[in-house]
Write a structure and sequence with these properties.
Helix content is 63%, strand content 10%. The strands form two sheets. A six-stranded mixed beta sheet has the order 6-7-8-3-9-10. A four-stranded antiparallel beta sheet has the order 2-1-4-5, with helices on one face. Strand 9 and strand 10 form a beta hairpin. It starts with a helix and ends with a helix. Among the domains are: 168 residues, no CATH class; 177 residues, 3-Layer(aba) Sandwich (Rossmann fold), CATH 3.40.50.300. The chain contains 18 helices and ten strands. Its main location: membrane.
C-alpha cells in the first residue's frame, strides 16, 4: 500500500514529496527539543540561575517559532501536492477505464460504482499519504517523548501502553464504517445523475414541458438524504469507538500527572519535571490520537486502493497476451460463425446463432425492427464486445487474436446517438483520427466527404467556432448538424478496414439524406478498393438498396440475406417493410 501511495505522490510532484518528508521528520524533533528547554528554563528559574533561564527561554521560543513555520510551510505544500495527487488519481482511473478493450465494463453498474467511489473519495489517498508521514512524525515524537518521561520516573510513562487499545478501537470502528459507506455509493451516484439532468440544457426542455423538475428534485433529495443518513451512521459508529479510546487516554493522562505529583511530594522531582510531564503528556496524547487517526485513514485508503487495483487489473484477462496487428488490407473479408451474445448478468441472448460472411470490398446494409439486435451486431464487428459464444474472423484470423487497439484503429464509425463533443469545430471533427486532429486539410476533406460544409458556413468563426453551450461563446447546433459532424468524424480515417454507419441519417431531412446517400455511395466505392467493408444500419430502405448486400435482423437472428431486388420479391420481413414504406410515400 505504501508503495502505491508514494507512487501517486512521486508521479505528481517528487520535489514536494521530498520537502514534505523532511519537514514531517524534523517537526517532531523540534517539538520535543522545545519541551526539553522549557523544563530547563523552569528548573533554572527555581534555582535562580537567570542566565541559563534566559538562554533556555530564547531557545524554546526559537524552537516554537520554527515549529510554527514548519507547520505553515508543510500545510501549503501538502495542499499543492494534494491537488496534484487528485489529478494523478483521476488520470490513472481514466487510463484504467479506457485501457479495457471493450465497452461492457462501462455498462456495468458495479464497475461504475467502484469508479465513482474512487473519484469521490480520492482525498482519502492524499490523507493517507500525509498520515504515513504523520506516523513517522508521531514515531519521532513518541520515541523522544518517552525517553524524556523516563528521565523523571518509569511510571510517568503510564500513558504509553494505553495507546494500544486506542488504536485497536479506532481500527474496529473504521471497519464497521467502511461496510456502511459502500452501501451509500449507488445512492450517491444516482443522486448526482438526477441533479445533472436538472442542470442539463439538453434535458431541461423535456423536464420543463413534462413538469418533471419537482419530481426529479424530490427524488434526488430523497437519495441524498438516504446516503447522508448512511454516512451519518458510519460517522457515529466511528465516534463511539473514538470516545472509548479517548476515555482510556484521559485515565492514563491523569495517572501520569498523579505519579509526578507524588514524586514532587517525596522530593524526587522538581517543578521543571512537572512542567515537562504536563506538556509531554498533552503532546503524547495528541500524538497517540493522531496515530489512531492515521491508522483509520490508512484503513480507508487500503479499501480504496483495493478497488483501484481491481480497476487497474480488470482487463488482465481480456486482452490477448500476444495479439497481432490488424492487416493493412482485407483480402477475404469478415466471417461470423455461430456467434451468440448475452449481456453480463442477463439470462437471454441478444444475438443467437449468427452466421454471416462479408466479402472484402463489400457494402452491407443491416435492416430490421427496433430492438432486433442490429446495433449489438455492429459493436461486435467493431470489437467493442466479444461474442459470448462463436467466433468472428478477419481474413481467417480470429478477431480475438488481433490486438483490440489495433483493430479499433482500423475501424471508423458514426452512430445515431454519437456524442456531441463540445470543442472547437475543427477538434470535434479531428478527434475521429487523433494523430491528425490538428491537420486542417484532413479535417476539411472529412467535412467535404460528409457534406458538412453548410454546418461550417453557418457558424461565426468556421473551424475555430466553439460548439455547445458549455463553452464561452459556444454555438449550439441542430440534431442534423451534429449528425453531419459525426459523419465527418468518421471520414477522418482515410484507409479503414471497416466503415460503420449506425443509422447515420436519422436526424437529417429528406434532401440532406439523398445528398449524403450519393456521397456515401461514392465513398463506399473508394474505400472498397483497399478491401474495406462498409456496414450501415438504416430503417430507410431507399438507402439500403444501394448496398451490395442486405442483412435482415429479426428477434436476435439473421433471417434474410441478399440484394434488394431478391429480398423485395420474397414474402419475408424485408418485402413487408418495403411495401409499407412505398405505401407511406404514396
Amino acid at each position: 500500500m505504501l508503495a502505491a501511495l508514494l507512487g501517486f505522490a512521486w508521479r505528481a510532484d517528487r520535489r514536494n514529496v521530498l520537502v514534505v518528508a523532511v519537514l514531517l521528520l524534523s517537526g517532531g524533533a523540534v517539538v520535543i527539543a522545545e519541551v526539553w528547554f522549557i523544563r530547563d528554563m523552569v528548573d533554572a528559574a527555581v534555582a535562580g540561575r537567570w542566565t541559563r533561564c534566559v538562554t533556555a527561554a530564547v531557545a524554546a521560543g526559537l524552537l516554537a517559532a520554527s515549529a510554527a513555520s514548519i507547520g505553515r510551510v508543510q500545510s501549503n505544500l501538502e495542499l499543492q501536492l494534494g491537488e496534484r495527487i487528485g489529478l494523478e488519481v483521476d488520470r490513472q482511473v481514466l487510463t484504467a477505464v479506457s485501457g479495457v478493450p471493450h465497452i461492457g465494463h462501462v455498462e456495468n453498474p458495479d464497475y461504475l460504482d467502484r469508479v465513482a467511489l474512487i473519484r469521490a473519495r480520492k482525498s482519502w489517498l492524499t490523507s493517507a499519504l500525509w498520515n504515513v508521514g504523520g506516523v513517522a512524525n508521531t514515531a519521532v515524537v513518541l520515541t523522544l517523548g518517552i525517553a524524556l518521561m523516563l528521565t523523571v520516573h518509569p511510571l510517568s510513562a503510564l500513558m504509553v501502553p494505553a495507546g494500544v487499545p486506542v488504536l485497536l478501537l479506532r481500527a474496529a470502528g473504521q471497519r464497521k464504517a467502511t461496510a456502511l459507506l459502500d452501501r451509500a455509493t449507488p445512492l450517491t451516484r444516482l443522486e448526482q445523475h438526477l441533479t445533472g439532468l436538472c442542470l442539463s440544457p439538453d434535458a431541461n426542455s423535456e423536464i420543463r414541458i413534462g413538469a418533471a423538475g419537482d419530481g426529479l428534485d424530490e427524488r434526488a433529495d430523497r437519495l441524498w438524504s438516504q446516503a447522508s443518513a448512511i454516512e451519518a451512521r458510519a460517522d457515529l459508529r466511528t465516534a463511539r469507538f473514538a470516545i472509548a479510546g479517548s476515555a482510556i487516554l484521559v485515565a492514563s493522562y491523569t495517572g501520569a500527572l498523579a505519579v509526578v505529583a507524588w514524586l514532587i511530594s517525596q522530593g524526587r522531582a522538581g517543578l521543571g519535571d512537572l512542567m515537562m510531564v504536563v506538556i509531554l503528556t498533552a503532546t503524547l496524547t495528541r500524538s497517540t490520537t493522531s496515530l489512531a487517526g492515521s491508522v483509520t485513514a490508512l484503513q480507508r485508503a487500503v479499501g480504496l486502493l483495493d478497488r483501484y487495483h481491481w480497476l487497474r487489473d480488470f482487463d488482465a484477462g481480456l486482452t490477448p497476451a500476444s495479439g497481432g496487428a490488424a492487416p493493412a488490407t482485407l483480402r477475404s473479408g469478415i466471417t461470423l460463425s455461430g456467434v451468440c451474445f448475452r449481456y453480463p448478468g442477463s439470462e437471454a441472448d441478444v444475438l443467437r446463432d449468427i452466421d454471416l460472411t462479408i466479402p472484402a470490398g463489400t457494402s452491407v446494409a443491416v435492416v430490421g425492427p427496433h430492438g432486433a439486435g442490429k446495433s449489438t451486431l455492429i459493436k461486435l464487428l467493431c470489437g467493442l464486445y466479444e461474442p459470448t459464444t462463436g467466433v468472428i474472423t478477419v481474413d481467417d484470423r480470429p478477431l480475438t487474436a488481433i490486438e483490440p487497439a489495433s483493430w479499433q484503429s482500423a475501424v471508423t464509425a458514426a452512430f445515431q446517438d454519437g456524442h456531441r463533443f463540445e470543442l472547437r469545430l475543427a477538434e470535434a471533427v479531428g478527434i475521429g483520427d487523433l494523430p491528425h486532429m490538428h491537420d486542417e486539410s484532413r479535417v476539411e476533406a472529412a467535412i467535404r466527404a460528409a457534406g458538412a460544409e453548410d454546418v461550417v458556413a453557418a457558424t461565426p468563426h468556421g473551424l475555430r467556432t466553439p460548439l455547445g453551450r458549455s463553452l464561452d461563446g459556444g454555438v449550439d447546433l441542430s440534431g442534423g448538424q451534429w449528425q453531419k459532424l459525426a459523419l465527418a468524424r468518421a471520414a477522418m480515417r482515410t484507409r479503414p478496414l471497416l466503415v460503420v454507419l449506425d443509422e447515420p441519417f436519422a436526424s437529417l431531412d429528406a434532401p440532406a439524406e439523398r445528398d449524403l446517400v450519393r456521397r456515401y455511395a461514392e465513398t463506399a466505392g473508394q474505400v472498397s478498393e483497399t478491401g474495406a467493408i462498409t456496414v450501415f444500419v438504416t430503417h430507410r430502405l431507399s438507402t439500403a438498396r444501394i448496398a451490395d448486400l442486405i442483412v435482415v435482423v429479426e428477434d436476435g437472428g439473421i433471417t434474410e440475406v441478399g440484394k434488394h431486388e431478391d429480398l423485395a420479391a420474397r414474402r419475408g420481413l424485408y418485402a413487408e417493410l418495403h411495401r409499407m414504406q412505398v405505401d407511406s410515400y404514396a
